[in-house]
Design goal:
The chain has a single domain, classed as minor pseudopilin epsh fold (3-Layer(bab) Sandwich). The chain contains one helix and ten strands; from the N terminus they run αββββββββββ.
Amino acid sequence: MVAIAIVAILAAIAIPNWTEQIQQSGYQTTLEEGQSAVRMLNLMALQGQGAILTQTGTAITISANSGAQWSGHFPQNGQLLLNGAALTCVSLNGMGIPAAKITYPPCTQSPSLMQWSVGYANKTPIAITSSTNGVNAYD
């Protein structure tokens, strides 16, 4: 009986810590994947005469007009946010400035301000870039 009580106490301590570690790992992976996606979008737009980033569920894909491709996945419950809202797509022209309908498939979003962040589960979104006139500066 005492052994069962000791095991129950240890489980009560260990399980919440383990759950928090799993969530923190997913949050960190989401942050890293989001940073990589934004960097690749800018790089591919500049090198490939424009590029589009699309997000479907946890999958993210970047297609440059030059034909180059990049893809990644967020953990379950992870997502890329643009100006505080879930991202579906965004296109950048060959100068890295948001522009609608310059890529195929076309994207009609053309935000003048680009503040990138990532969200994971019920955690507060964390900013990964700040922007001035469409030029990204990484935090």
